[in-house]
Please model this.
Amino acid sequence: MTRLPGAELVAISKSATRRWIEAAKSTLLAIIAVMTIEPKVPKSVAVAAYPGSREAAELAADIASHIAKCGLNTIHASLYDEALRSQVGDGDFDLLVALGGDGTMLRAGHLCAPPRVPILGINLGGLGFLIEVAQEDWMSVIERVLAGDFWLQERMMLRAEHRSRDRVVAAWDVLNECTIGRGETVRPVRLITEIDGHYLTTYVADALIVATPTGSTAYALAAGGPILPPELRNILLVPVAPHLSVDRAIVLHEGSWVQVIVRTTHQATLCVDGQASVPLQDRDQVDVRASEHTVHFVRIQEPDYFYRNLTSRMMQNPTAGVDG
Model:
């Protein structure tokens, strides 16, 4: 077996240490970012609809009209409307009302986390793990929120960086999960995984999911991972179809830094929160740690709503299209 020269080993160790310190600093910022903020009665509200849905657009107009009659400043548009996104990003609104499903809530989270704008979701989709308000209840819920009768739930985000040849190619803030795995070719990839600069294992698998507690009820759940309470601040590792590899999920502390190096002779990809996949090359690397940003969801039910809603969703999945 070829051994690396001592100088090269020292250089690698110093590089890993520097990056671990950077990750630790980012984690400290994340801890500061999640200090509980007191909910305030909104004075300006943006209403964002699922793109391409006439139903969502019409409902957004109705909600905005109702809010305007209450004397508040409001706009309504598609979630992808540049004017709406610019104003929300600049912190011009105290609340974003998002109309759609869980995917809409993910996109709204990406938009609203940096300016710390709370999100109220109204479910027009299927499962709605991230949403507690049904479409037919929107008016009564809006009136409660405008009266200040709500609380804010904080959801941890991750920071994922794609590195190639020791440079950052792209970076994302992640609410659900990032998935490093194979592409169209049905062959596993080797994923060399380190925690805080220390070797953990090499997964030979279809993919490795790195998820938040929010993401524990998404792809990670389908892959056999545990369900974590959404208010926790942990990083979850779940392998997908591992072959003669570690096949158990691992729950890490929020201060952990995960490094995944891809070894493959065929296509590999990185997918963040269900968005379009990014191609990965052999020896590309994905670094994941706690983000400095946090998503704030507006809640009106009691804090135990998650467990009550969870059982109904687990017993009957509306997206399956099967009655019973």
In short: Residues 157 and 198 are 23 Å apart (CA to CA). The chain has seven helices and 17 strands.
